[in-house]
Amino acid sequence: MWSKFEKTVMIKRIIDEASIKRFKDIVDSVSHIVITCHKTADGDAMGSSLALCKVLRKMGKNATVIVPDQLPLSLSFMTKGFDYVTFSRNEVMAGNIIRNTQLIMSLDYNEMDRVGQSMKTLLVGAKVPKILIDHHLNPSKEFDVMISHPELSSTSELIYRLLDESGWLDYVDQQVASSLFIGIMTDTGNLSFSSSYPEVYHVMGKLMEYGIDKPYLYKMSMDTVPLNSLKLQSYALLNKMTIIDDSFALITLDKADLATYNYKTGDTERLVNKPLSVKNIHWSTFMREDPNCIKVSMRSEGDFAVDELCTRYFNGGGHMHAAAGEFYGSMQEAVELYYKIVEEVKNQNKQTI
Ligand SMILES: [Mn+2]
User: Structure pTM?
Assistant: First the structure.
């Protein structure tokens, strides 16, 4: 029905021309390209990688997406009919592809550490140009071309702009548009975060012009969970959530909890957001006992910044309202540290009052 409206919106050019030129020159000069994204890929990492890969293949390039580790099951609908390589499951093959590539692109992460040590060693060792295309703060200097835009909602939005500004929109089709749409939708909480400024809607409008199935993409990427995940999350909220002073929430899941509910990667996705739907709760923390560490995720609302806490205490970082980190020690020690942080936060609040 919307197709009767005129398609007149122009998307502003924001990537500097020198970077676009270098990007295009490098792509023109090579035939083999590797596209990588961060560990535990999310909708944006996968959406942007698949979209760019498909465009490059349509241009006649031999392009391969290499993801560091197994994708969460929830993203498998995105990769139907698309071949990609999972590094952790096929190190030999992935290593050969990396050794034979002429160009490496790093999407949706800001430093090589985010792909894990063994994949990082191979990427760093490859003596080929490396192009960063990302929206995280503080990109490291280990790339030859930096297309870094932390002000953007998502890497998928950045890829759309890059294709637009490179004059490559003719290569965009329904599948490419769907991948980018998912990336923007998932990284913006379906356009609910403050990162969704007006032009994001315009970019999504442009993507809709390719005839994407929006209700299906929303249902599959934002509103579908495996039954065991629903049960694990319900159990966590009912039995493993502590509320402090009516305003902070802590959820912990240890190995035994995860085993009981047959936990798989991705099963606790968005669990950390759930406590924030209670009126006065504006800081939520989730700790999960992984094989090598306690994985810590934090979400917040309003003035409360969690990236600094994750950087200072949990070797991590992220955005003001969404951050993550890791704790090396027992769950009990992690929880004790959490309570220390709570005391500190409360004291700071008293001082500001
Ligand atoms: Mn992203």
Answer: 0.84
